[in-house]
């Protein structure tokens, strides 16, 4: 009985639709995990050319931390979904993650496509 429920849970997680964004990126592949409520989370998108977007608004890397700080000040329970193209250099993603950590955001999901 537990095995069947576990299989159903995994199937549900894999087939659950991901948040649709207007910024097109190729997501890396990873095993599915439990995610935050994606309808309420702010989406950070990083395109292959390194362009960064907060929801649909473009933002420069040097202004990213300030933008997140402003949004955290208006919503103390801010949740973020990081939606980075798989070809984006790790250094860019690491800088974003460092900024998110410094601001004190506690809910962060990294969006991937199921394997």
TrEMBL record:
Belongs to the ExbD/TolR family. GO terms for molecular function: transmembrane transporter activity. It is found in: Cell inner membrane; Cell membrane. The accessory proteins ExbB and ExbD seem to form a complex with TonB. This is Biopolymer transporter ExbD. GO terms for biological process: protein transport. The keyword Transmembrane helix applies. One of its GO terms (cellular component) is plasma membrane. Involved in the TonB-dependent energy-dependent transport of various receptor-bound substrates. It is a single-pass type II membrane protein. The lineage of its organism: Bacteria, Pseudomonadati, Pseudomonadota, Gammaproteobacteria, Moraxellales. Keywords: Cell inner membrane, Cell membrane, Membrane, Protein transport, Transmembrane, Transmembrane helix, Transport. The keyword Transmembrane applies. It comes from the Bacteria.
């Amino acid at each position: 009985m537990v095995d069947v429920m576990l299989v159903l849970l995994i199937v549900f997680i894999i087939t659950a639709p991901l948040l649709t964004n207007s910024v097109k990126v190729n997501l890396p592949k990873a095993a599915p995990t439990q995610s935050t409520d994606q309808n309420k989370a702010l989406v950070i998108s990083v395109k292959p050319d390194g362009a960064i977007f907060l929801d649909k608004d473009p933002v420069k890397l040097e202004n990213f931390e300030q933008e997140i700080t402003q949004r955290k000040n208006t919503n103390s329970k801010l949740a973020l979904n990081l939606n980075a193209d798989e070809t984006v250099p790790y250094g860019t993603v690491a800088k974003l993650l460092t900024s998110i950590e410094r601001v004190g955001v506690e809910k962060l999901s990294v969006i991937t496509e199921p394997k």
